[in-house]
Amino acid sequence: MPLSGQLDTRVSARTLLPLAAAVLAVTGLPVAARRLPWRVLLVVSVAASAAWAVSLALVDGGAALGRPIATNAEYLADVPRVHGLHAFLSGFTGHITVGSPGFAWVTHVSGHPPGALLAFVGLDRLGLGGPGWAAALCIGAGASAAAAALITLRVIAGESTARRAAPFLATAPAAVWIATSADALFLGVSAWGIALLALAARPAAHNPATSGKTLDSAPGKQRLPGKRWMGGRMGGWMGEWRGGWGADVLAVAGGGLLGLTLFLSYGLVLLAPIAVAVVIAQKRIRPLVVGAVAVAAVAAAFAGLGFWWLDGLSRTRIRYQQGSASARPYLYFLFADLAVLGLTIGPAGVAAVAWLRRRTAAFWLPAAALAGILLADVSGLSKSEVERIWLPFTPWLLAATAALPQRHQRWWLAAQLTTGLAVQTFIRTNW
User: Fold this and answer.
1) Which letter does DSSP use for residue 222 in this model?
2) Please, are residues 3 and 388 in contact by the beta-carbon 8 Å criterion?
3) According to a count of CB atoms within 10 Å of the terminal CB, is the N or C end of the chain lower?
4) Residues 104-109: contacts with CB within 8 Å, 24+ apart?
5) What average pLDDT does the chain have?
6) pLDDT score, position 50
7) What are phi and psi of 7, to 5 degrees?
8) Which DSSP string corresponds to 324-353?
């Protein structure tokens, strides 16, 4: 501890792969972020994120990509037990705790709502069963979060701000766990839900490609790009109520994904401050209401099929205490979890969050993410393993890297990549 794993130095010819990827990232990503067309940059960011995660995992060999999700404690172990959607959901709560009649779900299934297991059951029913396809789903979803975060940041703070953060969103040390943990799937689903809400909240006159021009160039002194399109006839809460059917469709889609997120992991209800922030920052209210209705509709669908979220949470807390969590001291992990968070977002992420100021255009996203993380930390329900549990919060904290001085960007990027490579080389994680 505090990282869940063991000290185990592994240096071999395979280490050259992430080392080469790191050199390419340091030299190429800052240039790509400045010069590539926006849509191409989104694709490159996703590809770079996936490549960095996979190259790190391959330090332990090709089997390392699928092995972590194929253990007896992971979701795939319980896929054969699912027969029929209604029977599964209505009976799910009855098998969470140790000693449940008949059987108890394996550790990770019992610690999460049924949506996480359903995702892998769905893959299996499509003929894509096994750890290889499951790993591909998790890596693809986790890597795509870089694009979702960039889109959100562009809407909130302008394209120039988003471009400055792009290299860091693609290369965070969190990549160590993106290629080895089902929580990367949760990261992707939640990130796109937030991105769609942000898009739904855009005022009709908003042009994200030019809104960044309202920002001051000095780091830490950007102004929220609000007065041009948040004020005047576009300003005011009720004045922005009419968003059109297109905005409503985006809000429904975003709310639907965030609703599904609640059924992937109980703790991700604490992403709510970020979802609220991306709408409130644009002085809109309708997308928030429409999105909330969509979240409620997803919860109602699960309840109608037999699973009530609060009952599942209550039983999971019992299972949590039946496991190793009861032996983990609260006061130690109150601070250790934050130290682990610092490792997952890297030195550039830590420096950027410390640099954060209210006047910074990218303020809303990391501030809201910090609020959710601190609630999770103080609750005592996040004690260890936060390197994967808090993955869905990392891109929103890394949005703060847009405020780092551009003249030092490559040095900060090198520090990020070095941290990820060091964790992968010297620590054999449990995922």
Assistant:
1) P
2) no
3) N
4) 104/319, 105/78, 105/81, 106/72, 106/73, 106/74, 106/75, 106/77, 106/78, 107/73, 107/323, 108/73, 108/74, 108/75, 108/182, 109/75, 109/77, 109/78
5) 89
6) 97
7) -65, 125
8) GGGGS-HHHHHHHHHHHHHHHHHHHHHHHH
Q: Are 158 and 208 in contact (CB under 8 A)?
A: yes
Token reading at 402: 């847009």
The answer on pLDDT for 191 being more than 90 is: yes
Q: Tell me if residue 427 falls in helix, strand or coil.
A: strand
Residue 239 pLDDT: 36
Quick one: pLDDT at residue 227? 36
**How many angstroms separate the CA atoms of 103 and 44, rounded?**
45
Q: Tell which residue, 87, 104, 86, has the closest CA to residue 95.
A: 104
Token pair of 176 as six digits:
């160590």
Q: Residue 428 in 3-state DSSP?
A: strand
CA distance 424 to 422: 5
From 165, 223, 222, 225, select the one nearest 346 (Cα to Cα). Answer: 165
Residue among 83, 4, 21 at smallest CA distance from 421 = 21
- Coil, helix or strand for 5? strand
222 Cβ partners below 8 Å, 6+ apart? Answer: 157, 161, 215, 216, 359, 360, 361, 362, 403
Report the 3 state secondary structure along 6-69: EECCCCCHHHHHHHHHHHHHHHHHHHHHHHCCHHHHHHHHHHHHHHHHHHHHHHHCHHHHCHHH
Q: Which amino acid is at 412?
A: W
**Both tokens of residue 405?**
């001085």
What is the spatial distance between Cα 215 and Cα 402, in angstroms, rounded to a whole number?
12
Reported pTM: 0.90
